[in-house]
Each structure stands twice: as structure tokens, then as C-alpha cells.
Amino acid sequence: MTSWQLNSTIFSSDVNALAASMYGEITHSIDGDALHFSLFEHAANDMRAMWNTRMRSIVSVEAVLKMVKDSIHGEQPLSDGE
């Protein structure tokens, strides 16, 4: 049976927050501003699903961090609806 492996490195100044969003889901390591993780699956469609899940998590964390940082710097105040 074919196995699939994906190795990824993401560079971010908020690497610890990104790693925290994956805590308990996958094994990762941090090296400076780099977050490293690997995915292993037996089926290509499962690999795609795992990759999509990881990327949605990262995009969500990045969006929340931007909103918080903008509110701290007075660029976009947080409202009750956000």
C-alpha cells in the first residue's frame, strides 16, 4: 500500500501561537520563527483532508492574531460582534 508523507515548514513571527493551535493533533517542532510538522497518511484523500484541516487552523489563528494586534494598535477596535 502506498503511504503519503508531507513535510511542512511555516515561518511566522507568531510561531508559538500557530504551534499551540495544533497542540495534541500532530507532532511539531519550533526552530526560531519556523514551525515544522509532518503528516503521514495511507491514502491521498486522507492526506488532502489532513492538510486542509491544518491550513484552516493556521489561517484562523493568523486572522485572530491580526484582529487582536490591530485592536491593540488602535487600527481596528474589537466590537461585540467580532
Keywords:
82 residues, alpha+beta, TATA-Binding Protein, 3-stranded antiparallel β-sheet, 3 strands, elongated
- The total count of strands amounts to 3
Structural class category: alpha+beta
Shape: elongated
Distance between the termini: 46 Å
Largest sheet: 3 strands, antiparallel
Helix content percent band: 40-55%
CATH architecture: 2-Layer Sandwich
CATH H-level superfamily title: Alpha-D-phosphohexomutase, C-terminal domain
Strand content: 15-25%
The order of strands across the largest sheet is: 1-3-2
**Number of helical segments with 4 or more residues:** 2
Find the CATH topology: TATA-Binding Protein
Number of domains: 1
Mean pLDDT over the residues: 88
Ordered list of secondary-structure elements with their pairings:
Blueprint: E1 4-11, H1 15-21, E2 28-31, E3 34-41, H2 44-72
Explain this structure.
By secondary structure, the protein is of the alpha+beta class. The chain has one domain: TATA-Binding Protein (2-Layer Sandwich), CATH 3.30.310. The chain is 44% helix and 24% strand. It contains two helices and three strands, in the order E-H-E-E-H. It has helices spanning 15-21, 44-72; strands at residues 4-11, 28-31, 34-41. Strands 1-3-2 form a three-stranded antiparallel beta sheet. Strand 2 and strand 3 (34-41) form a beta hairpin. It is elongated.
